[in-house]
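Re: the request from the purification team.
They wanted to know what the chain is likely to look like in 3D before they choose a buffer screen. I agreed to run a prediction and write the result into the notebook, where they can find it.
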Amino acid sequence: MKHTVPRGDAKFEPRDPRWEEKVRESFERQGAMHLLGAEIADVWPGGCEIRLPFRRDLTQQHGFFHAGITATVIDSAAGYAGFSLMPPDTSVLSVEFKLNLLAPADGELMVATGEVIKSGKNLIITRGDAWVFKGAKLTHCAMMQQTLMTMHGKAEKA
């Protein structure tokens, strides 16, 4: 079964010709995403999709994905959406987000998407969504609005 989730239709032009490579390389440096077992499923200019298979150690007391895990995955998806549009020799940093939990994250696969709403020189505003699949049922479980800061001249740590 192919698990697909809704996406917006905003179109952006990346400022770095290596945008996809730099996003994927940055993701590989993220210890938190590796710890969780998350993977980038897709990246496009101004967007990113991260998938996280269910594991019991990622749950809260009712057996749903923990809200903190949900927030972490959406934060990364939206952050990489913004990073895809940043110029060369920059890095990304989340500076604010608001998360609404819409339904219990009860499923065997979480899919988080992030998409840029507004791309500025220093600040980028994104929207993130999390969906869970339980069998053929798709549930929109969370949405986020996020502000990212472009870190000019600041490389990521290896």
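For the purification team: The mean pLDDT is 95.
Please add any questions underneath this entry.
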